[in-house]
TrEMBL record, chains A, B:
It comes from Streptomyces viridochromogenes (strain DSM 40736 / JCM 4977 / BCRC 1201 / Tue 494). The keyword Nuclease does not apply. Residues 310-332 are annotated as: Disordered. This is LacI-family transcriptional regulator. The keyword Transcription applies. PROSITE patterns: HTH_LACI_2.
Length: 332, 332
DNA sequence: GCCCCTCTTTGGACCGTTCCAGAACCTGTC
DNA sequence: GACAGGTTCTGGAACGGTCCAAAGAGGGGC
């Protein structure tokens, strides 16, 4: 009653297990009638290859592990999509693990993937302990995707270009005629890059003294509170660039509560082009991080390292695009 | 340069590989000094057990596969959380696969999990081909979680009680004083159950002739359009119960566009208690499907079947709760 | 000093594949 | 009919663990 093995198939087809193996791996050194017999026997028995046995023997799993930092922030779905399309074309599977779920249980979220001896690892988003990746990278290709934290040697890195994205936003607002522009800043490498680029762009347009930065915490509540502070200033800004969409939604609530119309009285911009920003009820102007392209590039890096292991870690920044929707307009 | 094996550890510790195996599996039949030596050697070499080899030998993987129907609908995150907590307590790992990603590539999304010989399978949400589960269930425990479609024999099923949820909503609205109540219906088993329960509850309160049903398609756009139709009726309803949160957001847009204030002029209720419903800008009254409890119960079913394989498929419905937020009030 | 018993430790078979060296089988040539 | 050379097929050794039967070590009693 146990699943059939290659030997069961061999017996039924009246050949050796080696021949079955040859047929199933698509060799052309097999006489057609034997091939037919083997395939028929496999079909009749409902044979499925045992991945454990195969990878033990082949010393590879044809599987890459994908470690997500948090399933609750589904900005990475496009990224996975891009990743999967390329990996699948090369006969590789993806296995997902969620760092947040496993962290709570106290173990390293990558452990199950490493024990499975995945052929490579894609880390999506920022991990609590990025240094640990260095040790892993010595044993298998590792790509960090969608995070901008510094990377241990030998790890490739792919992400959206946050500096360019923040510049696009800031120039969009300046182009609309805004001068007093505020930024709701976030934390982490990404938060830092977006803020710096905002400041640099304002400076480049001679608006350094009109730029305001308030700290949010990348939550809706943080965005709300920071915006209330901003809008109560004597020199109230006419536009707000939030570090991400969720902060921007908080800003939207604050504006509404204080009786400001968006975008007529106040322009708002988010970042990430999340599904939330696409709700017609919100319809946020935002930045699309080219997740699909990031995913494809991550797959590319991985495939390259399968062919030529070792070497320096390479970086790649994908060009983001501005999604102009309903929350930006010229200042009043 | 290949990862160390149990033999490398044995050699370094000066014992046989069998003893290493005993120590690593926590046997108490080992003299403390040997145990110490083995553990030290394993640590020094950075030894990690090879999951493929182990599962080949043990004939089990200590891993359950989780097949998600679509990562883009993250209502299942609580469910995974509940699932993981119980599985982890029993030394089992979770491996995720996304049906939608793999479907696009033309293969059965469960294939990689089956080839890995996972010990059990949890299917989260509705699959395109539920009948295929029957064949799988003959070989391993299978639980369908968070879907209400009919289930092949031998498959357990856990989900929120949609009938009760819809009743809670409808009675909440009736209790507030609403009489003309509309339902934005969805499709699938869940859509059907919620609609039927809405109609039954209205009937039970003698309001059968005040109940209206409009079909949405479980998208924001569908909710928007259905609501526009509703609100242009001569006997405009004073409350709308949407089949899910995203449809409810569409309804919210429509109401706003037609100049109706929510909840003063129109009450709205969603379903699923998604993160979207919790945005303070929307703050939808909605139904929480007890995802955590559903996940725990799914794990329970799985664990039971590991102990006693076979037997009928069992159903379990978790009791949902009403989350009263900002979109419901007495009628004008 | 020997025997018995218990506690530790070990070698080897096995799990289901792949891969390789070589066997077996053709076909054609001289 | 022997031989060469190619094609097709097969047995057995990995791969890295687990598990079992049995060997070895140590202690106690006579």
């Amino acid at each position: 009653m146990r699943p059939p093995t290659i030997r069961d198939v061999a017996e039924r087809a009246g050949v050796s297990k080696s021949l079955v193996s040859l047929v199933l791996r698509g060799s052309d050194q097999v006489r057609p009638e034997k091939r037919e017999a083997v395939l028929r026997a496999a079909r009749e028995l409902g044979y499925r290859p045992n991945a454990a046995a195969r990878s033990l023997s082949e010393q590879r799993t044809r599987t890459v592990g994908v470690l997500l930092n948090d399933l609750r922030n589904p900005w990475f779905v496009d990224l996975l999509d891009g990743l999967n399309s390329l990996l699948h074309a090369h006969g590789l599977h993806m296995l997902l693990a969620d760092a947040r779920l496993n962290r709570r249980t106290g173990q390293d979220p990558a452990d199950p993937l490493l024990d499975l001896r995945v052929d490579g690892l894609v880390v999506v988003g920022t991990l609590p302990d990025p240094a640990a990746l260095g040790a892993v990278a010595a044993r298998m290709p590792v790509v960090l995707a969608g995070a901008r934290e510094p990377v241990p040697p030998g790890v490739d890195q792919v992400a959206g270009d946050d500096e360019q994205g923040a510049r696009l936003v800031t120039e969009h607002l300046i182009g609309l005629g805004h001068r007093r522009i505020a930024h709701l800043a976030g934390y982490g490498a990404v938060g830092e890059l977006r803020r710096r680029s905002f400041e640099a762009t304002m400076r480049a347009h001679g608006l350094a003294d009109r730029a305001v930065v308030e700290n949010g915490d990348m939550t809706e509540e943080g965005g709300y509170r920071a915006t209330v502070r901003l809008l109560n200033r004597p020199d109230r800004p006419t536009a707000v660039f939030a570090v991400n969409d969720i902060t921007c939604v908080g800003a939207l609530s604050a504006a509404e509560e204080l009786g400001l119309r968006v975008p007529q009285d106040l322009s708002l911009v988010g970042y990430d082009n999340t599904s939330i920003s696409r709700l017609r009820h919100l319809w946020l102007t935002t930045v699309d991080n080219a997740g699909h392209e990031v995913g494809r590039r991550a797959a590319r890096f991985l495939l390259d390292r399968f062919e030529r292991p070792g070497g320096e870690g390479r970086p790649h920044l994908a060009a983001p695009t501005l999604e102009i929707r309903g929350t930006t307009a010229p200042p009043p």
